[in-house]
Amino acid sequence: MVSIKATCDGSLSSINFQIAAITFAEKWKKFNSDLPEWLWIDCSNRLGFAAHGVRDGYLSVQNVFFQIQRSLKEDYGECSSLNDYEEPFDIATLTTGDDGYWYDFHVVYSSSYSVPVLYFRARSSDGQPLNKDEIEKNLPTGSAKVLTDSKWTFITQEEHPYLNRPWYMLHPCGTSEWMKLILAGENPAIENRNEQYLISWFSVVGQVFGLKLPFEMLKSVG
Amino acid sequence: MSGDEKGPVLQFATFQSSVDEGFWHGLSSLKLNKLKTDETPISIMGFYTPCSNPHVSSHLTLLAESLPTEPSDGLPTATTHGNRNKCSVPGTLYNTNTLEGYQSLDKKGLLQAEGKKIWEDIRSGKAEEDSSVLLRFLVVSFADLKKFHFYYSIAFPAVVLDPPATLVDLRPASEWFTLEEAESVSACCNEWRMSSLTADVPFFLVCISSNSNATIRPLKDFKACQHEDQKILFAFYDPYHGPNNPGWPLRNYLAFISARWNINKVQFLCYRENRGFADLGLSLVGEALIQPSQAWQDEEHVPKVIGWELNKERKVSRRVDLSTSMDPTRMVVSAADLNLKLMRWRALPSLNLNMLSSTKCLLLGAGTLGCQVARMLMAWGVRKITLVDNGKVAMSNPLRQSLYTHDDSLKGGTKKALAAAESLRKIFPAVEGEGIVMSIPMPGHPVPSKDEKNVLDDCKRLHDLVESHDAVFLLTDTRESRWLPTLLCANANKLTITAALGFDSFLVMRHGSGPLSASYESKAESVSSLSARVEEMSLPQSDSKPRLGCYFCNDVVAPVDSTANRTLDQQCTVTRPGLAPIASALAVELFVGILHHPLGISAEAEFGNSLDSGSSEQPLGILPHQIRGALSQFSQMILVGHSSNSCTACCPTVVSEYRKRGLDFVLQAINHPTYLEDLTGLTELMKSANSFDLDWDNATDDDDDDCVEI
User: Fold this and answer.
1) Nearest CA in chain B to A168
2) Which of A113, B113, B190, B600 has a Cα at 20 to 30 A from A82?
3) Chain A residues whose beta carbon lies within 8 Å of the beta carbon of residue B52
4) B276: which chain A residues are within 8 Å (Cβ-Cβ)?
C-alpha cells in the first residue's frame, strides 16, 4: 500500500523504497542501453532472520566506466625502482588499456534519515582506489558546482551498511529537504508515487556524476 | 609473398585484470590468520564475462571470493559455479613475505611453470573436459600490512606459436552469417548463457547445419561433430571489445585446437554480448592459419610462454595503496572530521576547523580539570595537547579524573602526565599528546639553595612551554601555582584560561591580553602564526579600553603558601564531583569562542543582556570575561574584572621586571612573597587602606536589610 503521508515531508518509507527500487531497475534496463544494469541485492537473511516480510537490500550497479581524456598522473615512482621483468612483446600481441575510472554505485536505504542514499567507490584501471579529493576532481565540471553550491550534498566516507567496508556517499542529511521542494508541486495521490520519488531523487544525485536518466524514464512518472 | 597469402600476423588483444579492493582485504586476513609466513602458492579463482560494451573490454576480476577460505583447500568452493556473470578461471597466487622476496622472484620461471600446466592440460585432453584451464593465470604479490600497500604482477600465460598464426579473415559475425543462421546462432547462444550448466563455460563449438540451424556443442563432442555435415566454428567468450582483433583467450585456444586435433585452419567466433544477449554485430568471426611446429612432436617439449600484463607505464609490477580504507587510524581521523564538518555545515558555517586542529594547547595540571579539558579539546578537533603534572595516579583518581583507569594507579601509580597523554592516544590515535612531568615553581614555597638550579630549570622549561604553545589552560589546584604561569602568559601575550574550583563553586575566566607589546623574544621566534595573530590583535595598553584582568588582578595579597598549616583534608581540594566537568566544559567552550572572535584575547567582556550584544555577538554567542558558578543554586554569573596596575602577576611593572631580570626575579618572588607586594605597590596600598579612618557610628542599622549577598 502506498503511504501517501510519508512522501509529503520529503522522506520515503523502507517498504516503499524497496518497491520503487525494483521498478527503477526495470525501467533503467528498458530505457538505458548505455550503462550497465542495476541489480537488487537481497540481504534479507543477513542477520539470520528476515524481519516480518521486509526484504532488506540495496540497488547496485557495478563497473560504470568513465573515460577520461587527459592522461593520469599516477604514482608509479616506487615501481620503477623495482627490478621489473619486462617482457619483450611478441609480434602476436596487441597491447590494450583503458584510460578511465571505474565506479560502483549502490542505492541504500537509510533508516535514520528515511531517505535513499547514494554510496559509491571509484578506482583506476590499475585497481588503485580513488580518494575523495580525486573523485571530486574528476567529477563532470557542472556537478562540482552542484556539490559546492547546493550545500545539500557533500561527499563523505562512511562504512557501507551491508558490506562493512568504507565507501563514499553523498551525505543524506539534506535529502528530505530538497526532496520536499522537488515534490512540492506534485499530486500526492498519484499511483506511482514511490517510483516518482526515487526517479526524482536519482535525477538529482546522478547529476553529480553525470549520470543522466533517459527522458523516457522521467516521462514515465509524469 | 607466401606470408601475404596467409594473411598478416594474427594479433591478440591483451587480457586486462581488475583487482577489487576486497581481494586485498581477503588476502590480508588470510595472511594474518592462516598463512602467516607460509609462502606456498595458493590456488585462486578469477572471474570474467564476455565483453558487453562496445567501448570497453571486460576484465579478469579478482574479488574477495577469489581466495580460498583455507589456503590448503583446492580451488575456492564452487559457489559461483554456473553464474553467467562470473565465468571462473583457475589461477595461482604466489604471495611473498618481504618486498625483497617479491622483487627477486623468478618471474620468468614462474610464468613458464604456469604455462607448462596449461600445455599439459592441452596435451592430456583435460582442456576438453574443463576448458577454463586454458585461461589459467598467475599472480605474484607482496602485501605490506603495516602501510597497507599491495605490490603485484599478473600474467596471462599464452603459448607462443612459432611461427605465429596468421589472420585470413575477420569481420563482424552479423556480416558472416546469413540472416537465418544469425538468428539461430543468437538463439542458441542465449540459451547456452541462460543455462546454469553451461553459462560459465567459456569455450564451445557452434555447429551450423546446411539448413541454417545452429547448435552449440561442448568441446569434447568435437570428434563427433566433425563427421556431421556442418560448419564448425570454434567459439569462446571474448573479453575484448575492438572490431579488429580477437581477445587473448584465442591464443591458447588455437594452440589447443592445433595440438589436440591437428587442425591448422581454424574458423573462430569471438562471442560478445550487449545487455545480456548475444550481439552479433559486436561479435567477430574470423579465420586463422596455424603452422604446426615440428617441436611439438616431441612429448617433452614445452613451448615458450609469454603473458605478463603491463600497466600504463609499461611496467609489470604495480602497487596499490589502500591505507585510506584499511588503516584504522586514517579512518578514525576522517570520521572525527566528519562530525565537526557536520556541525559546521548544519549549524555553524563560520566554524574554523583548521584553526582548531592547529592550535597547540598547554594544560597545566592533569587532575579533574586537566583530564576533562583535554577530552573536550579533542572533541573540538584540537590535535596537539601537552599536559604538565608532577604527580602520580592515586587510587582515588580514576573516579574523578577521566583519563585514568585503575591500572594506572597500581604499583605506586604511573606519572599522571604520561598516563594522561597515553590515554588521549587510546581515545583518538591521531592526537599528538605529550605528557611532561614537572613541578611548577610557586611563590611562598621557598627553595633551598641546593634545589635552586632545578627550580630555575623548571622555570625556564615552563617559559619555553608557554612560548611554544598557542593557548594555556591553568588547571592546577592551588592559587600560588598559577602565579608563574600567569606571568609567563602575560609576558608572551598568550591565550590563557583559568579554571578554579571551590567546594561547590567554580570560576572560569579568560585572562586579558598582556600589558606590554610583543616582547623582542617572542617576535623573533614567532612560534606560530596564531600567536603572531594574537600579538597583532592586542591593543596597546595606553589606549582607551582597559585590559581585562587575570586571575590575580582582584587580589590584594600576593600568593603565599596556602597548603602549609592545614590538615590533610584541607590540603586536598574537595569539590562536588559535578563541578569539574562543568567548569572544564565551560573553559573549553570559552576557548573556542576566543579563537573565533575577530579580536581574540583582546575582545571585550560581553554580557548576556547587554544592549549592544546584538552587534558584537558572534555565531558562537557572547564572549564573557569571567563565569562564576554556584552549584548549590544551579546558577552562573557573568562578570568582568579589569586589570589592576598593582597585580602581582600581570601588571606592567611585574612583567617588565621579569623581562629585565628573568629567572633571578622569579627566584626572588618565590623566596620572598612580600617582594611582590612591595614591587607592585600593594604594600603601600594596604598601608594607606589601614590608615583610612572610617566613621562607622553614623551607619544606620536598617540599611543592612537592603544589603544583598553577591
Assistant:
1) B325
2) B113
3) 36
4) 37
pLDDT of residue A93: 85
**pLDDT score recorded for residue B559:** 66
Flag if A127 and B151 touch (Cβ within 8 Å): no
What does the alpha-carbon distance between residue B61 and residue B705 come to, in Å, rounded to a whole number?
89
Q: Is the dihedral of CA B174, B177, B179, B185 positive or negative?
A: negative
Nearest Cα residue in chain B from A36: B275
CB contact under 8 A, A98 and B57: yes
Q: In terms of Cα–Cα distance, which of B302, B301, B439, B297 is closest to B364?
A: B439
Look up A173 and say whether it is catalytic: yes
Pick from B316, B320, B342: CB nearest A127:
B320
Helices (H) and strands (E) in chain A, counts: 7, 7
Name the DSSP letter for residue B618. B
Domain ranges of chain A: 5-218
| Distance between CA atoms of residues B94 and B66, nearest Å | 14
The verdict on a CB contact (< 8 Å) between B18 and A125 is yes
ipTM confidence: 0.73
Closest Cα in chain A, distance from residue B233 (Å): 22
DSSP E strands in B69-110: the ranges are: 87-96
pLDDT at B490: 95
CA–CA separation, B86 and B269 (whole Å)? 20
Each residue of B356-376: b (16+ CB within 10 Å) or e?
bbbbbbbbbbbbbbbbbbbbb
Helices (H) and strands (E) in chain B, counts: 26, 25
Is CATH 3.40.50.11540 what the domain over A5-218 is classified as, yes or no?
Answer: no
The verdict on a CB contact (< 8 Å) between B108 and A72 is: no
Hey, what's the cell of A198? 526515487
Radius of gyration, alpha carbons of chain B: 41
Residue B32 per-residue DSSP state: I
Long-range contacts of B605-614 (CB under 8 A, 24+ apart): B605/B548, B605/B640, B607/B638, B607/B640, B608/B638
- Distance (Å, rounded) from C-alpha B337 to C-alpha B328? 14
Chain A neighbors of B318, CB-CB under 8 A: 76, 79, 126-127
CB contact (8 A) between residue A84 and residue B315:
yes
Neighbour tally for B82: CB within 10 Å: 16
- A29 contacts B275? CB cut-off 8 A: yes
Q: How far is B322 from chain A (nearest CA, A)?
A: 7
Query: Which chain B positions have a beta carbon within 8 Å of A76's beta carbon?
Result: 311, 313, 315, 318-319
Residues of B designated as active site: 572
- Contact status, residue B386 vs residue B469, Cβ threshold 8 Å: yes
Helix (H) or strand (E) holding B25: helix B21-30
From chain B, pick out residues whose CB is under 8 angstroms from the CB of A102. Answer: 18
Q: Tell whether the torsion through CA atoms of B664, B665, B667 and B668 is positive or negative.
A: positive
CB contact under 8 A, A125 and B22: no
Residue A85 grid cell? 621483468
CB atoms A79 and B317 under 8 Å: yes
- Give the distance from residue A135's alpha carbon to the nearest chain B alpha carbon, in angstroms: 14
- For B130, B216, B222, B297, B434, the CA distances from B204, given in Å and listed in that order, are 11, 7, 9, 26, 68
- Residue B698 backbone zone (phi > 0: left; psi -120 to 50: alpha; other: beta): alpha
* Beta pairing partners, B319: B151
Which residues in chain A are contacts of B242 at CB distance < 8 A? 96
Reduce the DSSP state of residue A146 to 3 states and report it: helix
Report the alpha-carbon distance of residue B585 to residue B590 in Å, rounded: 9
